[in-house]
Amino acid sequence: MENIDKAVVSANDHIVMQVRFLTETAFILRLTRNDMQFRAGQHIIAGLKGEIDQREYSIYSGENDDYLEILVKEVKEGNISGKLKQCKRGDLLQVNGPFGSFGIEPYDLQTQKHIFIATGTGISPFHSMVRSYPGLNYTLLHGIRFISEAYEHDEYGPERYILCTSKEKIKNQRGRVTGFLTKFRVTNDMLFYLCGNGNMIYEVYHILTDKGVPSEKIISEVYF
Ligand SMILES: Cc1cc2nc3c(=O)[nH]c(=O)nc-3n(C[C@H](O)[C@H](O)[C@H](O)COP(=O)(O)OP(=O)(O)OC[C@H]3O[C@@H](n4cnc5c(N)ncnc54)[C@H](O)[C@@H]3O)c2cc1C
What we know:
The chain contains six helices and eleven strands. The chain has 224 residues and is of the alpha/beta class. A six-stranded antiparallel beta sheet has the order 4-3-6-1-2-5. A five-stranded parallel beta sheet has the order 9-8-7-10-11, sandwiched between helices. Bound molecules: flavin-adenine dinucleotide (FAD).
């Protein structure tokens, strides 16, 4: 690592410290942090050093970790995610950021129940929030197709993590996250955070507003 450090020419150059595969197509890149300050929920824009193409990735690691992590899912026929999958320890990424205002307000930490609703890698900013704020009052609904996509679910308390699989049967089968939500009882002290694909966010937004949740209590981050 020492030799590689010398090759870093700008604070935007982040070294790949570790690649951790969670499935055949989903992986975590651990990068040097380079003193980057961020709020849990924000994202970076990253790409291979020297290449023009870059994409947004939510920060997966916590505010107090001394490294920076992102959780990436390889998109078939995608451009950048496939290249990131080939990364090895010691490779350089060019990173800009942090960006975005998706995050928790300090005041809400004390007063609100945080209901996180994610599809796929949309769990990433919530992982960062849970890691950054011990004692956070939250419930995390994770909509995925197969159980293998329940990325590092052991990091959330079993009573806090609700898995909704759409293509694989599990005990107490819940089906799609939208189906589960139609039966979910909402209360006035809940704040809803949605992250993932646009269709889910659109559907969930309407389910929640139909249940009487005011739109200012629904905060969303659309991935694609
Ligand atoms: C704010 C923000 C945060 C994001 N955070 C993450 C993250 O933490 N992890 C992550 O894996 N991705 C994240 N994304 C998506 C990411 O930026 C890229 O779009 C994704 O990695 C695909 O890039 P690509 O170059 O491989 O594919 P592209 O060549 O850009 O796209 C190919 C096609 O795939 C679609 N697509 C993009 N993402 C997905 C997906 N996950 N599943 C299915 N189709 C998709 C695109 O809409 C496009 O039609 C985020 C996007 C935004 C806007």
